[in-house]
């Protein structure tokens, strides 16, 4: 009986310590989430307008060719850029993104092989385990994402595409829908204007209205379309990468906050059950001791 009480007491102490850790991690994640959500919501309109601009430029300059608007048909490889977290303890965030990425990689049926760029330790490790060729890794970007931090990734992608190494470039990231919902997404980053896509959650009505408005617009290029494309398109690619990083960062902190909150709630439930069990064991021990005293007194009399 005494041994059982000590064991339960040790478990209560251990779970109480774990609860303190998960509560502290929840508060830290909540603080980071607030900053990340402010950044992602502030930059999302610009990123969405950038996609619309890319599609409009692609339609308005059909006679003006640019390497970033054309698919490299002779290339034998496809580049996949995967954005995940560096750390775990974020529920199913990383596993869902990795699962979606692997499905997208396996569904590439144009005869090309896959090279990958991993932004985040978890994604890089998963790609290596699945025998996907990782040509570059970038870590510690999602904790405090900045535009300058994403520029080396953008330069690597642009230089490779200019050199016609890749037929197309795919981008996998986690879209921040809300603090309770994060959705893995795969988009075609290059060639630009290849498909309709948006970074961030946009309603269908908004998309239809924007498309109608876009059809009424006319564009004038100064000094000429080629010069505008040369200056504008690489910056837009970098903007899209940065927005995807912001979306993934906000998703990571939100998922971690929710996971730690659930862990804290589970610890509270376990503490209640163990405290009840400990009190029951202690009460049984006291009852047994009273019974032994009574029996001893009766035997003496």
UniProtKB/TrEMBL annotation:
Q: Which Pfam families match?
A: ATP-synt
Main localization, broad class: membrane
What SUPFAM superfamilies would the database entry show?
ATP synthase (F1-ATPase), gamma subunit
Q: How does it sit in the membrane?
A: Peripheral membrane protein
Which Gene Ontology biological process is one annotated for this entry?
Answer: proton motive force-driven plasma membrane ATP synthesis
Keywords, sorted A to Z: ATP synthesis, Cell membrane, CF(1), Hydrogen ion transport, Ion transport, Membrane, Transport
Summarize the subunit comment.
F-type ATPases have 2 components, CF(1) - the catalytic core - and CF(0) - the membrane proton channel. CF(1) has five subunits: alpha(3), beta(3), gamma(1), delta(1), epsilon(1). CF(0) has three main subunits: a, b and c.
Identify the NCBIfam families for this entry: ATPsyn_F1gamma (TIGR01146)
Task: Return the similarity comment.
Answer: Belongs to the ATPase gamma chain family.
What is its biological role? Produces ATP from ADP in the presence of a proton gradient across the membrane. The gamma chain is believed to be important in regulating ATPase activity and the flow of protons through the CF(0) complex.
Protein name per Swiss-Prot or TrEMBL: ATP synthase gamma chain
